[in-house]
Protein: Damage-control phosphatase ARMT1 family protein
Amino acid sequence: MSDTVDAPVIRADEPGSFARSVLAERHPALIEKVRDAFPYGPEQHRALDALRDNSAEGTIPPLAPTAYDHDRWEVWGREHFGRSWFDVPFLWAESYFYRRLLEAVGYFADGPWRGIDPFRPFKQAELHTPQAEAELAALDDVLRRPAGEQAQVLVHGSLWGNRADLGFRLSATGAEATGAATPPLVADDAEALWSLLPVGSPATLCVVADNAGRELLPDLVLIDHVLHHGRAERVVLQVKPYPYYVSDATTEDVVDCLRRLAGAKGAAAGVGGRLWAALGDGRLTVRAHDFFRAPLPYQEMPGDLRREFAGATLTVMKGDLNYRRLVGDRMWPPTTSFADRTGYFPGPVAALRTLKSDVIVGLDEPTVATLDAREDRWRTSGAHALIQVRG
Ligand SMILES: O=P(O)(O)OC[C@@]1(O)O[C@H](CO)[C@@H](O)[C@@H]1O
Structure:
């Protein structure tokens, strides 16, 4: 690891970079989308205007001393307050932007808007699109196939479901946004993943969720498969403790998805019913550890979370943000070993991720050469995906 540990931390200081486009283009667009989705009052409009102006040009302000979780952000933000949003680590800047956005809409304040998820309308709409309907109907066929085939299809469903996040679609176009064809994976350790969960083993699977809506639905279907086919005795689903990165799943989103499944027709309803029962008898647990909304890499996880991961037979990290936190949000040479980068992780870990930011490790030379030769933006377009496992 030591030869690559100095890979540059990703920041948004370079005009034209992906990170810059997220802060300078996606974030202002998101503020307007949230503003339009709710009948907010003048105070919230003023706060949203202030956040828009500040995050475009200003320096990063600390939270007010009376703010919810002020003390934690004082520590997390010590080195960054007072600097430009573009000069601090990209991971930190995005995370703090979401914290400030919640503040602006009154999420933490006493009053009627407390606890109202500003992204909920978008997450809910996703559950009722024709695509979601078709994906649920397709389960009638998929769940009749042999178990091994189901496993293969469902892991890909969960993987490509990651392409569906709203933050990504705020700037993606064409095939990137609609998610047309799915090319071969740039790394595919699916076999290693399933070998860690043999049928009949007393495994505990931990799934660290990413997005709600159209990603969480296939995640839940995959979890049902694992429990129903005896590949794990227990599953722990980790979600975010508060709304984050637009579409990230919270407990409320899990409940919405379960209701959607249970209320669907055919095989999907069976999945919903089984998962509902699994929550009732403790085979499935939902947790929302506080660290999942920290602006930090998993290498800095606290002891209790470390112990939790250590107790799992396998931890599956869903999505791009979890990948960045898992391997470190740096410009690694793409052939850097995934096993080395995740060596600190306290147990077997798998990443299921579509490529939507600059970070990438664990590729072989020929794959990198082919991608470089064919596409300018293969790291960030969302057109490619991977399954990587460290056993
Ligand atoms: O974790 P997800 O949902 O797969 O992806 C989230 C994400 O693509 O959105 C941001 C840009 O809006 C990226 O920086 C980030 O990694």
Notes: Confidence is low (pLDDT under 50) at residues 172-179.
